[in-house]
Amino acid sequence: MADLQAIKEAVSKGKRKDIAGLVQTALDDGADPNTIINNYMIEAMKEVGARFEAKKIFVPEMMIAARTMQTGLDVIKPLLEAQGSQKETVGTVVIGTVFGDLHDIGKNLVVLMLESSGFEVFNIGENVPPEKFVEKAKEHGADIVGLSSLLTTGDPHLKATIEAVKASDLADKVKVVCGGAAVTRKFAVDQCGADGHATDAVDAVKTIKQLMGLN
Ligand code: B1M
């Protein structure tokens, strides 16, 4: 019988050795991969963030929790990838985490969801300077540039990246979509001129499809 609470606890407590088995058992018992991710793993990471903020845990514990989540995601990944494997490419996305920010789990989830929805995605990594977003968007003929930002100190870099895309000759070809815990719609869209903002990976797919006129 699937013990989804045990998955949440394993991520939250950083029980990396247990997580793959727990996730596999849950999948074998018929649990929905998206439910495991959204209702248990991401919730666990929110708890981890709250404990970090309250100074009950520190960076190493946060890191171990992140690695545990990643190990669990690796079990789910092939299932989500298979959902997208038969579809034709519906658009091209270049995505990265903004300069100064090394958080990658949320961005990688967005990548997974986009790929499973038929997008070709170029994941250009973390700590990405504005000019690299522009360069890679040109190189890959992107329809969308996706920016992920988890730190409030990333705000100026998010703004600089949006400005760099809008100042380039990509401006009328490419739409910029932003997301991540530190980013609000007000800041990204209203103040910085991004074309879209998404709250989670499912919303990212929906927002990008809307911007491309695919809905
Ligand atoms: Co960091 N960290 N961290 N951290 N970390 C946060 C973000 C923090 C909120 C924790 C806290 O204090 N409560 C806080 C930021 C505070 C702030 O700026 N206001 C923080 C801090 C302070 C730091 C350091 C500065 C700590 C330090 O060193 N003193 C440091 C910074 C390092 C750096 O980047 N330069 C740091 C380091 C780390 C670790 C390396 C230990 C680790 C990251 C490991 C990794 O990513 N490989 C880590 C972790 C794990 C977290 C928390 C706990 C969890 C992040 C996560 O993976 N969540 C986080 C607390 C929190 O977010 N509640 C925290 C799960 C993930 C699925 O969610 O990333 O939000 P998320 O992605 C979601 C949505 O946001 C959205 O969809 C995703 C899926 O639903 N989304 C998009 C994301 N990108 C999108 C793009 C889109 C659309 C949607 O369109 C393109």
From TrEMBL:
Pfam families: B12-binding, B12-binding_2
GO (cellular component) term, any one: cytosol
Kinase in keyword set: no
A molecular-function term among this protein's GO annotations: cobalamin binding
Residue span(s) of domain B12-binding N-terminal: 1-84
InterPro entries, per database record: Cbl-bd_cap (IPR003759), Cobalamin-bd (IPR006158), Cobalamin-bd_sf (IPR036724), Met_Synthase/Corrinoid (IPR050554), Meth_synthase_dom (IPR036594)
Biological process terms in GO annotation: homocysteine metabolic process; methylation; tetrahydrofolate metabolic process
SUPFAM superfamilies: Cobalamin (vitamin B12)-binding domain (SSF52242), Methionine synthase domain (SSF47644)
Keyword set includes Methyltransferase: yes
Alphabetized UniProt keyword annotations: Cobalt, Metal-binding, Methyltransferase, Transferase
Family named by the database record: Belongs to the methylamine corrinoid protein family.
Stated name of the protein: Corrinoid methyltransferase
Native species: Desulfoferula mesophila
